[in-house]
Amino acid sequence: MKKLSARRRHPLAAVVVLLLALAATGGLYAAFAPAGKAQADESSQSLTIKEGKKLYEVGCASCHGTGGQGSSDGPSLVGVGAAAVDFQVGTGRMPAATSQGAQVPRKKAVYTQAQIDQLAAYVASLGAGPSVPTEQQYGPGGADIAKGGELFRTNCAQCHNFTGKGGALTKGKYAPSLEGVAPKHIYEAMQTGPQNMPSFPDTTMSEKNKKDIIAYLNAVNGDETDNPGGMELGGLGPVSEGLFAWIFGLGALIAVAVWVAARTAKAKKS
């Protein structure tokens, strides 16, 4: 006992005890803190899904089925992912009106963004699908506008026109204008292919290429007073340009020809 007491009074004894206490505290924190945080995150996500299910049962289940399996009035939502919900509900296309035309138009959103996030979380829980993109994915940073224009003219202009002004399709359907559409929703549309539009997943069109296309649309649909090409004529491409040339260009030539002929006839009479 005397020897033990002497060791405890050793000058380094306090340092050793302090180090052991710190090590024990750190070990306990490492063992228990992450688990607690994970449980908190899981509880928060479960609550979001639960609230989303409540919203779904009120506003969506009548068409898409109680479990998202679909019905004669609406397609299945299993596997569409959170991105499809954020696009459809965020642009006001869903919930759809009782009476509608050939396709569902964009309108004012019914739900708040917080409610949309809850609905998206619930639908995502039904089956894996594209997630809501981050600002880093669709933001302008690092985008190539020229490349985006090339990609847009190759893959999108056939329906949406050369600067995204929209255009008519068959049987009363149409490609909507992309002017004023949020970059996030454009990205989600490319990911999910809503209504008549084909989808462009990352295996078909890379994340970088989608970012380039969005940057191009932001550029051409920005400040219309800063148009290096002059009058854009609605941005509808060669049809409007050709019509302008025929009506005004050819019309001006005919007017000049008539004026010259009249002047010549008058000179001869004199």
Structure description:
It is a single chain. By secondary structure, the protein is mainly alpha-helical. It is 58% helix and 1% strand. Strands 1-2 form a two-stranded antiparallel ribbon. A hairpin with a 5-residue loop joins strand 1 (167-168) and strand 2. Helix 7 (145-155) crosses helix 10 and helix 9 crosses helix 10 (207-220). The longest helix has 47 residues, at 13-59. The protein is elongated. It starts with a helix and ends with a helix. The cytochrome bc1 complex is composed of a cytochrome b (QcrB), the Rieske iron-sulfur protein (QcrA) and a diheme cytochrome c (QcrC) subunit. It is found in: Cell membrane. Pfam families: Cytochrom_C (PF00034), Cytochrome_CBB3 (PF13442).
How would you summarize the topology of this molecule?
Elements: H1 2-8, H2 13-59, H3 61-64, H4 81-90, H5 113-126, H6 135-138, H7 145-155, H8 157-160, E1 167-168, E2 174-175, H9 183-192, H10 207-220, H11 238-269
Antiparallel strand pairs: 1-2
Top keywords for this entry?
11 helices, 270 residues, mainly alpha, elongated
**Helix percentage:** 55-70%
Q: Please work out how many helical segments DSSP would assign.
A: 11
Strand content: under 5%
User: Helix/strand/pairing class, anyone?
Assistant: mainly alpha
Total strands: 2
Main sheet specs: 2 strands, antiparallel
Radius of gyration: 32 Å
Spatial separation of the terminal alpha carbons: 144 Å
The average pLDDT is 84
Q: What's the helix-strand series?
A: HHHHHHHHEEHHH
| Strand order in the largest sheet | 1-2
* Overall 3D form: elongated
Query: Which spans have pLDDT < 50 for at least 5 consecutive residues?
Result: none
